[in-house]
């Protein structure tokens, strides 16, 4: 019997992904307004008291605005991509990137979110970035909202809780579609849209302490994002007929901890809770399994006439995901608990973990891709995957990150297997190809990049860029279209 050999398609996208709030800096430059990310404080690891430090209170906002706070806000600084974008894009091109995902900082275009006219300096900045990418033949993949809700919308409407935010988002989307219609074909509406139910301020600019029923508020905000995404998709297809809109999910694949049917049932429910977001985006309707959840949690989604029809009529064109780990489901969660980006989980004895406790599961990526393709029959694009780790700079300036190479190699191998299984996979964008400020902890020491940035957790450093061993390895991967790993 001949041995089956899977290959990546010729038009497969290879590259990396970033977020404006984690790389740009220039938080108040050239007319930019404040966003949710600009209020995220850096808390040293030894001083953290809870796993999820991403939520912000009204009092923290007040102190930040009044100048009373002595906290550092690393996402205001990023790695100064705002002034280094040409140099950074040249390095990505040197690796051979065929695609680069970045986000537009909404408050760089509409400083308060609700402004009548856009900020020309902000629009011009992204024109410059896109022109630089085009010069190097790198396809842009642009996220409209990546944890960057303008603070003006939080102040006026409590972010996405207010229905008015839908119209402001659609105007923003229409503005950038019109401006960049000849430069961008691949778009994503909301980064990891499930974040709004985990950290409402991060995902939706919602201050939970202003709400009598925070659970109701975050699912109401989510509904508004669903409607906004569909309306933006409608605008995209009108303005850029060959443009494609993707949704984005932080995919958390749950395994039952044991063959106990109760564990199996719990895993099924937790997978449904995670896939709910793409079910709405791709299938165009709320799944029936959520009815019980809403009743049991006293949630009643307020919908305007026509909302269900809008969601049904304008689903997404492709699915995008972040994938970093798998988790275990158990009705008797006894044992060692491991860390995670959005969730904690029982430790899986068959898996290793990163320096931050994220369980490394390459085969889980193949499982995830097959499950998603079976469920939706839409093209899938991995737009985040990578390993945050401590990197050591040697005396000669070299950085030997074999652990990162090994992580990426194993995941790419499983992607190839998934393609052999029949999955329509568009591409692979490694997270943080250049070191950036961590989303969840605002650290610099949690490094993902192929490119090292000389900056530490306290904000010290020259910002000099240098190539790690993984830089040269990934260059060969791209040159060989995934054959040389």
Structural class: alpha/beta
Kindly identify the CATH topology.
Answer: TIM Barrel
Radius of gyration: 21 Å
How many β-strand runs? 16
Order of strands across the biggest sheet?
Answer: 1-2-3-4-5-7-13-14
Poorly predicted tracts of residues? none
Give the overall form.
globular
Number of H- or I-type helical stretches: 15
Main beta-sheet strand count, sense and barrel state = 8 strands, parallel, barrel
Strand portion: 5-15%
CATH homologous superfamily grouping: Glycosidases
Instruction: Estimate the helix proportion, in percent.
Output: 25-40%
What count of domains describes the coordinates? Answer: 1
Q: Give the C-level CATH assignment.
A: Alpha Beta
Query: How far is the first residue's CA from the last residue's CA?
Result: 26 Å
The residue-averaged pLDDT reads 95
CATH architecture: Alpha-Beta Barrel
InterPro entries: GH, GH_1_N_CS, Glyco_hydro_1, Glyco_hydro_1_AS
Active site: 384
Organism: Peribacillus huizhouensis
Protein name: 6-phospho-beta-glucosidase
Describe the structure.
With about 475 residues, the protein is of the alpha/beta class. The protein has a single domain, classed as Alpha-Beta Barrel (TIM Barrel). About 40% of the residues lie in helices and about 15% in strands. It contains 15 helices and 16 strands. The protein has helices at about 20-25, 60-65, 80-95, 105-110, 120-135, 150-155, 165-180, 200-205, 215-240, 260-285, 290-295, 305-315, 360-375, 400-420, 470-480; strands at about 15, 100-105, 140-145, 185-190, 245-250, 255, 320, 325-330, 335-340, 345, 350-355, 360, 380-385, 425-430, 450-455, 465. It has an eight-stranded parallel β-barrel with strand order 1-2-3-4-5-7-13-14, surrounded by five helices. Helix 7 runs parallel beside helix 9 and helix 9 (about 215-240) packs across helix 12 (about 305-315). The radius of gyration is 21 Å and the shape is globular. The model has no long low-confidence stretch (mean pLDDT about 95). Its EC number is 3.2.1.86.
């Amino acid at each position: 019997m001949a041995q089956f050999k899977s290959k990546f398609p010729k038009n497969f996208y290879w590259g990396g992904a970033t977020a404006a709030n984690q790389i740009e800096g220039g938080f108040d430059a050239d007319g930019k307004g404040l966003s949710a990310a600009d209020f995220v404080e850096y808390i040293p690891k030894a001083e953290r008291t809870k796993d999820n430090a991403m939520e912000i209170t009204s009092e923290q906002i007040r102190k930040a605005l009044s100048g009373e706070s002595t906290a550092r806000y690393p996402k205001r600084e990023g790695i100064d991509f705002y002034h280094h974008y040409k140099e950074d894009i040249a390095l990505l091109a040197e690796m051979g990137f065929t695609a680069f995902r970045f986000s537009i900082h909404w408050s760089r275009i509409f400083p308060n979110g609700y402004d009548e006219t856009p900020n020309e300096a902000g629009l011009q900045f992204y024109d410059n970035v896109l022109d630089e990418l085009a010069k190097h033949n790198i396809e842009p993949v642009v996220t409209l909202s990546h944890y960057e809700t303008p603070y003006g919308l939080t102040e006026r409407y409590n972010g996405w809780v207010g229905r008015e935010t839908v119209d402001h988002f659609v105007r923003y989307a229409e503005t950038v579609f019109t401006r960049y219609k000849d430069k961008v074909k691949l778009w994503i509406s909301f980064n990891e849209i499930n974040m709004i139910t985990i950290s409402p301020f991060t995902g939706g600019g919602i201050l939970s302490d202003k709400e009598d029923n925070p659970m109701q508020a975050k699912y109401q905000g989510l509904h508004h994002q669903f409607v906004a995404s569909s309306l933006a998709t409608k605008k995209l297809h009108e303005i850029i007929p060959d443009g494609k809109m993707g949704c984005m999910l932080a995919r958390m694949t749950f395994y039952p901890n044991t063959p106990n049917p109760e564990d199996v049932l719990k895993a099924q429910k937790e997978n449904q809770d995670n896939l709910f977001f793409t079910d709405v985006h791709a299938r165009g309707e709320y799944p029936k399994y959520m009815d019980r959840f809403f009743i049991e949690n006293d949630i009643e989604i307020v919908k305007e006439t026509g909302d269900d029809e809008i969601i049904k009529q304008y689903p997404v064109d492709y699915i995008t995901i972040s994938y970093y780990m798998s988790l275990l489901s158990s009705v008797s969660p006894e044992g060692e608990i491991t860390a995670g980006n959005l969730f904690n989980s029982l430790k899986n004895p068959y898996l290793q973990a990163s320096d931050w406790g994220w369980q490394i599961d390459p085969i889980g990526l193949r499982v995830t891709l097959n499950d998603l393709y079976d469920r939706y029959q839409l093209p899938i694009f991995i737009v985040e995957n990578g390993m945050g780790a401590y990197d050591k700079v040697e005396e000669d300036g070299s950085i030997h990150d074999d652990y990162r190479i090994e992580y990426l190699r194993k995941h790419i191998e499983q992607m190839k297997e998934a393609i052999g299984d029949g999955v329509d996979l568009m591409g692979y964008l490694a997270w943080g190809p250049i070191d950036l400020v961590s989303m969840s902890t605002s650290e610099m020491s949690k490094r993902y990049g192929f490119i090292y940035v000389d900056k530490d957790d306290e904000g010290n450093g020259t910002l000099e860029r240098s190539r790690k061993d993984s830089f040269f390895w990934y260059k060969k991967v791209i040159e060989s279209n995934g054959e040389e790993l």
